[in-house]
Amino acid sequence: AELVRGMQLAMEAVGAKDGVIGIKGKKKCAVEAVQAACNGTNVRVQLLGDYYPAGDEYDLVFNVTGRLIPPAGIPLSVGVVVNNVETFAASCLGAHRGGAWYAGIGTSASAGTKILSVSGDCAWPGLYEYPFGVSVSEVLEDCGAKDIQAVQVSGPSGVCLCAPEFGRRIAFED
Fold first, then answer.
1. How far apart are CA 32 and CA 23, in angstroms?
2. Under a CB-based contact definition with an 8 Å cutoff, are residues 14 and 82 in contact?
3. What is the model's pTM?
């Protein structure tokens, strides 16, 4: 519900009539849950193919509008605004509880929380939500990781941290 309401707030801000949430078709549980949340709203679900690490945005814009984003272009160049579900959900919480409340979570330069997907050699892989500013070592402790040599942060386009860097924080200023 927070995802759909956050999207509706963004739509109101930019004057959009309709909203579309793109979900990979293979994510059946997510598709069902989001479709249920969209019932009775001006937001709908669009199923996407399985493209990674790039292609989702282009695929979504083309499948929904029939417009092609030009090479090195952005969705706005074809009149479309694209955002991620984490931002929409956070927008809903910030609007509901207020900016001061939201700014009080995380660090002064990185307000709010971040959802982290943890996998690999750990006892409890999964999705974790932390306030911005959490250290890599705290995340590793919480997921039961032992004797870790390195951590890949932010996926294949991110950075690989070695053990002496595990004190670094998940925040825009680090």
1. 10
2. no
3. 0.74
- Which amino acid belongs to residue 42? N
Write the pLDDT tens digit of every residue in 22-66: 888 899 999 999 999 999 999 999 888 776 655 678 878 888 889
Measuring CA to CA, how many Å separate 148 from each of 101, 125, 143? 35, 14, 12
Q: Which residue has the tokens 């984490």?
A: 86
E-strand ranges in the chain read 19-24, 43-48, 113-118, 126-131, 150-153, 159-162
How far apart, in whole angstroms, are the C-alpha atoms of residue 90 and residue 80?
21
pLDDT tens readout for residues 67-83: 999 988 999 899 888 88
Which residue from 44, 50, 43, 52 is spatially nearest to 24, judged by alpha carbons?
A: 50
The length of the chain in residues reads: 174
